[in-house]
Amino acid sequence: MTDTQALRYIRHRSGLEIRIAEQPDFGTACAQLCVQYGAVHLASIQKRKMLTVPLGTAHYLEHLLFENADGNVDQQFAALGASSNAYTEADNTVYLFRTARHFPEALGLLLDFVQQPYFTKQNIAKERGIISQEIAEYSLDSPDDRLFFLLLEGLYHAHPVRYDAAGTQESILGITPEILQETWARFYNPRNMVLCCAGKVRADDILRIADDHLPEAPPFTAKAILPDEPETAAQPLCKRKMAVGRPRFALGFKLPPVRGVDAVREPLLAMLGLEYLAGGSSPFTKRALRSGLLSDPLSTDCFLGDGWFTAFIEGEADDPEKVAEALLAELETVQQNGIDERRFAILKRCACGDLLMARDCPPAMAEAMQNAWLCGVESPDLRMELLRALTADELTAFLTARCRTDRVSLAIIEPN
Amino acid sequence: MPELLPTGGVRRITRVCTGFRSYLLEMHFFVPHRAETAAALAMLAELLTVASKIYPDRTAFTEQLDSLYAADITGQVTLCGDTAMLTIAAEWADDALLPADAGVTEAMCTMLEDCLLHPCAENDAFDAEEFRLARENLLADIACARNDRRSDALRRAAALAYKGEPAEMPVIGTAKTARTASASQTYALWQQILRTAPAEIIAVMPQPCPQIEAMLDRLFAHRAEKGAPPLFAPSPCKERPKRMTSRIRAVQSRLVLVYKYAEIPHPVLLLLTGILGNAPDSLLFRNVREAQGLCYDCTASPVPFKHALVIDCGVQAESLETAETAIRAQIAALQSGDYPESLIEEAILQIEYSRAVRCDTPDGMAALCLREALALDCGSAEEQMQALRSITKAQLLEAANALRLDTVLRLRGEGASA
């Protein structure tokens, strides 16, 4: 099985790490600049000076950076024929563009606008209306988002991952130009960022543009502070009513946070484990479909980052609590009886295929390189290497040691 | 089961793109959108893609796909004007990236052929258990249509805008038709579609594939090499705009405006929509979102088969009036030509970009092929750009002035989802 692509890793003299995948077969190129600063970083210390910011600050900052002295940055990308965007995750923020032409100019613009904040009271006030509607549309009215954060509320006592990245309509009222400026100054240091470029790009061009746009950065000295988080789940059951057609639920396992190679390997085990337990080909699903407990297979996912790691199963059912009870009983059976080697081999093959096909376009490649950086590893191919090496015994050990029934939370959105 | 259409042809479109890592085969069958068949068609999209004679239950079927390195077979129904399009698609990894003995392409051709020719059925009816699950899932989908507030608003606006036309009905039918459809009627519908419905078959692959060609020969060699019939079904514009305000259980309110036109050449419509509001720098983005901070998203989407242009956004309840005024002001600007010339070039660049992005993935490439097959795009990228650049401001003004407001839907959020 081959999956070799030309990758380059460069530590630029500015301090910025640059990762490049030259993929000349594609017609477009993309670049994404990722800052290791996200929604959960509400408190930080730098040179003994503490800073505490309101919920939603990282996201607000992301929006505001798209304003510069020349107007809106999206419009400047559009003039180049590029499409730009950004998103705020729990522990990082990403600014990106993709284009079929003028890649060098667009890359220069990306590096400039993230380095040149332009915060005024007027643009902060204007953006508040936009963000307020984003919160209403996604955080408050989307059943999927509500379910996800309900699950995180159930799993985490204190870690800010339990809050929506956009903050609340109340919290964003407390965000000022001074808070944004101080936050930007602390964390938006090239030594705390990675630039990932993929597609129809040339490494030499990228380095030349980086030379032109990035001076050497000062040492990165800010440190985010996260609250202590107990190992247990905060609440075993969380329910909310909403205008939905059928109950939706998520059953999450709270797992110990991981870094480095473990942050690549353990999610693989978590995904294989949950698929083994409740995936579309599992004996559990077969029984649940026949008995009427479910009408559609469940889906599985995991979510991890700076100080948190959860793996969860979600879906729709008329009686979510009964489904959760049956899932936990199935887990106990697997923990006792071990893993069937034949099914394990099939699920591993499926995971390999998913990984191979996931890199089918430049943004997917750029994201794979970025995720490797966020985990603290170099090569995005490490995931495939680790996956191939996994054994059924390791999966049994993972499910037994990590997926503990006393560290579980069930979130349910019920129709009102 | 009444005859759906006179027997149509089957057109095959193949694209070989050496950089891709997977094969994608899409079969699009075209069927008139009717109340009596909509729910059955929606169930077919599931029944044909979750089990077959060889793999007669969902878990066995899924396990086989898993064992073929995450291969996938999916089904869905979408509306093209007053015509329903049943799509059965299969995607699998390029064998060249897999162990030498994987044989995924061969196995997928067999599996797909089995799904279409030998679905999980007995005595001319779908398997009772599989049919029960498909109906239950369809009823859940119908009940959950309101979960996504934006889609729900667009669906409700379509019901108002196309009242009395087939496109008025939800694409997946109603709970009533889902309950009355039977396993045998649904099976008969499939047999008829397979035998007579016009189809577009699109294959995007990293290298030429004789197995796919042979499988398609076995399925469709007896049909004429001809694709979908014309799908344009213009919706007449109301004499006076239909206005409706309803309440919804949501924090955010939704606003949808439907404009209609008698005739606008498709490239002109594409460019006009880009200038108005589906490019990052457009009139709606600049003047409704950025200048006034009224909404997060404000989008203009053409519905070419119905000769309509739909604008929608999410706003707070108190801003519904202001947002409608602001949106209509952008249409007025479009109609008077009161916008910077640079927006035209930017819209052209965005259309060029969208096309380039499509060419970079198998599903994007397949979408491009389908758009060409349905007469929405034509020619190479260069030809399309040339056609767009030859459009004059006078043509844009004429097109903008052909837009007539047909429907305004306001869904007033009651202030809380819970």
What does this structure look like?
With 416 residues, chain A is an alpha+beta fold. Helices cover 43% and strands 22% of the residues of chain A. In chain A, strands 1-2-10-3-9-8 form a six-stranded mixed beta sheet, sandwiched between helices. In chain A, strand 1 (7-11) and strand 2 (17-22) form a beta hairpin. Chain A is globular and about 60 Å long. The model of chain A has no long low-confidence stretch (mean pLDDT 95). Chain B is of the alpha+beta class. Helices cover 44% and strands 21% of the residues of chain B. Chain B has helices at 35-50, 58-67, 104-117, 128-143, 149-161, 175-180, 183-196, 210-220, 266-278, 283-290, 320-336, 342-358, 362-373, 381-389, 393-401, and strands spanning 10-16, 22-32, 72-80, 83-93, 121-122, 125-126, 199-205, 242-248, 253-260, 298-303, 308-315, 404-413. Chain B has a five-stranded mixed beta sheet, sandwiched between helices. In chain B, helix 9 (266-278) packs across helix 12 (342-358), helix 9 crosses helix 15 and helix 10 packs antiparallel against helix 11 (320-336). The longest helix of chain B has 17 residues, at 320-336. Chain B is globular and about 60 Å long. At the A-B interface, helix 2, strand 8, helix 4, strand 12 and helix 9 of A face helix 2, strand 4, helix 4, helix 10 and helix 12 of B.
Keywords:
heterodimer; A: 416 residues; alpha+beta; 6-stranded mixed sheet; 43% helix; B: 418 residues; 5-stranded mixed sheet; 15 helices; 12 strands
